[in-house]
């Protein structure tokens, strides 16, 4: 499913000067890597036998070494005496390899050769929102059997955790601040939760203490998280997993609060916060790096305009940049409503999953499911699963008429796609 376009301008200026200023060498066998860098795996392997002894001669493994160590050590990625015609250099047909220094979680296949990844939008268990109902009925009691099954029976279930698990009392200077009983973390596994995203505009509602309490409480409950942490390196780190023969990376990021010093603090090299992408440069770097370590890269992004059911210009621009960087699917949220289902080339985009278990005002929401072919390392299908609510605090499977109406509404928002009666989404040709 992947496709990339790399331009001559993507190459480092020094590389171009070196290439264009020297004579022809027939032995040169360079390729343009996914991040636009010129690399000659044969030259690198031949001149660095210590690397090949440790990492083998797979071009992706060699390139991982060069980017991580070789550039700092002064190892050259190409023959400095070769005159390479840049117009004839091919793009590398990347075969990602598992990085020995990266932890890959395991996603068990319920059906051989495929896994299902199911995504939900914003969850808010603050007492005046959905927390009271969850406290009275238990978290699992907020869903009917059909919705609960859709979450639990998926091979991997993810939602956006848009509140803090803390008892801190000092709140951020914002109109709305959300916190919930830390005991709820122990119930997340009851609904099938495998991962939560924290890159949103409420993770820092109770300042650094609230964020750190959230991280500690999730860790104690055995629930992995991405998108916020104690420093930028941890906050931007993808969740890597292996399912069958396929490797996967999931990244969480936010571009809400679009100004320099927002209430929701962005993580830095030495301080806790969220992974912000108002300037997408670092996000795109993380995507490119993840693409060397995983067959499929999925970005879950907090973006868009509240109550707007179609993507704004910033969403469209970032989706295009993500696709060019190597992303395979984009899952969006924040707008408090369902948004357009679309594509950028062959990359599926959900511009917003809307509120999930969030507030009394929620009426229509969804689950979004990607089925992966783990033998081929591809996205086999995408499915929109309508979910309706009772007073916003009890999520249920819609009846046939309501389901048909919700699918019809999504078709009206999504001119790029076809949505069949079962919610399967395909790109219009």
Characterise this structure.
The chain is α/β, with parallel strands linked by helices. The protein has two domains: 8-88, no CATH class; 105-427, Metallo-dependent phosphatases (Purple Acid Phosphatase, chain A, domain 2). Helices cover 27% and strands 24% of the residues. It contains eleven helices and 22 strands. The chain has helices at 13-20, 41-47, 49-55, 59-73, 127-137, 145-152, 207-220, 232-235, 281-293, 313-325, 400-413, and strands spanning 31-32, 38-39, 105-106, 114-123, 156-161, 164-165, 179-180, 195-197, 225-226, 228-229, 239-243, 246-254, 273-274, 296-302, 329-333, 341-344, 347-350, 364-373, 378-390, 394-396, 417-419, 424-427. Strands 4, 5, 8, 9, 18, 19, 20, 21 and 22 form a nine-stranded mixed β-sheet that branches. Strands 3-11-12-14-15-17-16 form a seven-stranded mixed β-sheet. A two-stranded antiparallel ribbon has the order 1-2. Helix 2 (41-47) packs across helix 4 (59-73). The longest helix is centred in the first third of the chain and has 15 residues, at 59-73. The two termini are 15 Å apart. Residues 1-27 have low confidence and may be disordered.
């Amino acid at each position: 499913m992947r496709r990339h376009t790399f331009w001559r301008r993507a190459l480092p200026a020094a590389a171009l000067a070196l290439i264009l200023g020297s004579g022809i060498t027939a032995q040169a066998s360079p390729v343009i890597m996914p991040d636009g860098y010129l690399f000659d795996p044969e030259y690198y392997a031949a001149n660095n036998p210590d690397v090949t002894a440790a990492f083998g001669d797979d071009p992706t493994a060699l390139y991982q070494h060069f980017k991580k160590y070789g550039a700092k050590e002064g190892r050259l990625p190409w023959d400095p005496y070769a005159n390479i015609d840049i117009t004839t250099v091919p793009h590398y047909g990347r075969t990602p390899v598992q990085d020995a220094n990266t932890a890959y979680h395991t996603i068990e296949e319920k059906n051989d050769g495929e896994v299902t990844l199911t995504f939900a939008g914003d969850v808010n268990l603050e007492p005046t929102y959905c927390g009271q109902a969850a406290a009275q009925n238990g978290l699992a009691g907020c869903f009917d059997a059909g919705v609960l099954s859709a979450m639990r029976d998926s091979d991997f279930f993810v939602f956006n955790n848009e509140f803090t698990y803390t008892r801190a009392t000092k709140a951020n200077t914002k109109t709305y601040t959300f916190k919930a009983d830390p005991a709820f973390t122990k119930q997340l596994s009851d609904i099938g939760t495998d991962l939560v995203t924290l890159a949103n505009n409420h993770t820092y509602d109770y300042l650094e203490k609230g964020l750190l309490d959230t991280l500690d409480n999730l860790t104690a409950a055995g629930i992995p998280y991405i998108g916020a942490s104690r420093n930028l390196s941890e906050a931007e780190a993808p969740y890597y997993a292996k399912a069958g023969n396929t490797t996967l990376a999931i990244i969480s990021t936010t571009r809400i609060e679009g100004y320099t010093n927002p209430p929701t603090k962005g993580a830095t090299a030495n301080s806790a916060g969220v992974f912000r992408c108002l300037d997408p440069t670092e996000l795109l770097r993380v995507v490119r790096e993840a693409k060397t370590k995983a067959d499929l890269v999925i970005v879950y992004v907090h973006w868009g305009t509240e109550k707007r059911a179609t993507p704004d210009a910033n969403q469209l621009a970032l989706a295009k940049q993500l696709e060019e960087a190597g992303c395979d699917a984009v899952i969006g949220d924040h707008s408090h409503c369902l948004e357009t289902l679309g594509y950028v080339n062959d990359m599926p985009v959900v511009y917003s999953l809307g509120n999930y278990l969030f507030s009394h005002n929620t009426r229509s929401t969804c689950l979004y499911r990607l089925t992966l072919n783990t033998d081929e390392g591809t996205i086999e299908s995408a499915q929109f699963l309508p979910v309706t609510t009772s007073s916003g605090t009890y999520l249920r499977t819609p009846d046939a008429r309501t389901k048909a109406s919700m699918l019809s509404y999504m078709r009206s928002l999504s001119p790029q796609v076809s949505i069949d009666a079962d919610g399967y989404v395909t790109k219009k040709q």
